[in-house]
Amino acid sequence: MGYFSAACRSQYDRKLLFFGRPFFFAQPGIAIKLYPCAVVMHPVLDLLLALVRRYDVRSDTVERVRVTMPTQSALPLVYQRPKNGLQAKFSLPFAVAIALADRAAGLHQFTDHKVKDSRIADLMKRTNLIVAKNNTSGPTAVRIIMKDGTTYYGTTAKMHSGSAVSRSEIEEKFRQCARNQLTPPAIRRLLRYLGSIEDLKSVTRITQLLRATCV
Description:
By secondary structure, the protein is an alpha+beta fold. It is about 40% helix and about 10% strand. The chain is built from 10 helices and 4 strands; from the N terminus they run ααβαααααβββααα. Helix 2 (about 40-55) runs parallel beside helix 5 (about 90-100), helix 5 packs across helix 7 and helix 9 runs antiparallel to helix 10.
């Protein structure tokens, strides 16, 4: 159907469609999406998970979470109470809830099953998204208010962690994406081959593994 037809109903200006100079892929580089949700939530999840781990926040001790987000960032977050895993990818309350409950935000979390979890539903009710109308593109602020009155607060970094991920994080993302198609031994072998692909004389071993699992 065409990218511009799908993305903006064919409302675009051809004069603006150019890459420009210098070619921009090398700098600032390509980021890896660690979380399977709208990218505007990635910095929020980075910060929220860091606060949860740093202060050992347990979800059952949280009274409320307030997220103050710029107007531009909040635009894709259209589902306050998602009904399925797809809608959950565009729901800030859901993302906050699974980060608090599971201390993770991967493919295991953004599912229909999690959306129907009563514990997640309760945490979503405790999450408030505040759109800062006087802030169009600045950082997002996260405030976790505990039942005992303690508050944990932080603001998001300019770049989300996907721009500087560790090898272990990349491998874990690969496992999550591959687990429904590849066996655990195949995943381990593929990671070993891919980790040293520049030293391989042939990619035959890699393609054999992929063919065997796709049959």
